[in-house]
Structure formats: structure tokens, C-alpha cells
Amino acid sequence: MNLNPEERNEQYERQASPPSRRTFLTLLSLAIGAFCAALVGIPVLGSLIGPLLLGAPKAEWRAVGKADGFKVGETVEVVYINPGSLPWAGVSDRTGAWLRRNDAEHFTAFSLNCQHLGCAVRWQAGADLFMCPCHGGIYYADGTVAAGPPPRPLQQYPVRVRNGEVEIHTSPLPLPGFE
After folding, report:
1. Helix, strand, or coil here: 20?
2. Which DSSP helix (H) or strand (E) runs through 53?
3. Which of 95, 71, 70 is nearest to 85 (CA)?
4. What are phi and psi of 76, to 5 degrees?
5. Are the C-beta atoms of residues 130 and 124 closer than 8 Å to each other?
6. N- to C-terminal Cα distance for the chain?
7. Are 77 and 159 in a shared domain?
8. CA–CA distance, 66 with 80 (Å, rounded to integer)
9. Which residues of 81-103 are buried (b: 16+ CB within 10 A; e: fewer)?
10. I want to staple 137 with a disulfide (CB 3.0 to 4.6 A). Which of 51, 68, 77, 132 is the partner?
11. For every one of its 179 residues, what pLDDT tens digit does the chain have, with 9 covering 90 and above?
């Protein structure tokens, strides 16, 4: 295709001219939008794919103290490291349970969380009750619901005594039926 010199010059000017202000702002808006989408999308994608690649944290036996250190009939709060811990979690990686020594050989461990909305329950030794201060949930000493909105008893953890240490079989989250 032969173009005369004037048409060639006109075509060259169209190709060599800088983009208009409107084109520049459109491209800039698209680039900023793509950057923001990547800024939000990459962590979301990582949180969705991460568990598939790393697998779910497994429940583990955690030592919470010497068996001789707990009195029969007493309920105390014990602290342990969360099984689903991450290297950067720091102090927030520590969690706990309520531990009751039933007799010389048997212990019962309850989750710290109310089964209504997950608020922390407190042990009231004088009343022999667990109480949730947020919504009025009350549990008996065996973890069953006494009053209030909780739909089910406190979550219990399996407990064993091994080499004189009390160990609780903990889960990353105190979910009912988690094994």
C-alpha cells in the first residue's frame, strides 16, 4: 500500500503524538485499580489456598502441670500453647482451659469459651458454677447448662496423666466434636 508523502506524514504524527490527557488518566486509573485489587486479593487468595497446602493443625496433648499440684475437688485455670500456633503469634498464642481434679486419678478439662457466642467463662468457686458475664450463661460444675442462652454444655477436652504430668488433648479451636 503506497501512501503519498502527506498521508505518510499524517500517519506518523498520529503514531508519535503523546496520549491525550483522558487516555493517560484512564490508564492511570486502571493501573491503580489493578494494584489495589492485587493488594487485597493476594492475602485473600493466600488465606484460601494456605490451609490446602499446609493442612489443618492437628490436636495435640499439652502438659499443663504436675498431677500433685492440683487438689481434689478444685477447679483451676491452666495455660498452654495453642496447637495451631504460628511463629509470630507471641503472647496471643497462649490459651487455657478449666481443669478440675475429680479424685486421685481422674481430671476433667473444660474450654474457657461459652458455647453461646464464645465469650470467656469464669469459675465461681463459692457457687460451684461457671458463669458467662456477657449474656448470662451459667453452667454447673460438670459443664452442663444451668441457665441462660447457651445451646449446649461446655466443650470438654480429654485428659490423661502421663509420667506424673497432667496432659490435655487440645484443639486449635474449641469446637464441639473436634477430634
Report:
1. coil
2. helix 21-54
3. 95
4. -130, 155
5. yes
6. 76
7. yes
8. 13
9. ebbbeeeeeeeeeebbbbbbbee
10. 132
11. 566 766 666 666 666 667 788 988 999 999 999 999 999 999 888 878 877 777 666 777 888 888 888 888 888 888 887 766 667 766 777 788 889 888 888 898 988 888 888 788 888 888 888 888 888 888 888 888 888 888 888 888 898 888 888 888 887 655 444 44
Q: Is 176 part of a structural domain of the chain?
A: no
Is residue 88 domain-shared with residue 146, that is, in the same domain?
A: yes
- Whether 137 and 36 have beta carbons less than 8 Å apart is answered as no
CA angle 117, 122, 123 (to 5 degrees): 135
Burial class of residue 165, CB neighbours in 10 A (0-12, 13-18, 19+): middle
Q: Which residues pair with 120 in a beta bridge?
A: 113
For the full predicted model, state whether its pTM sits above 0.70: no
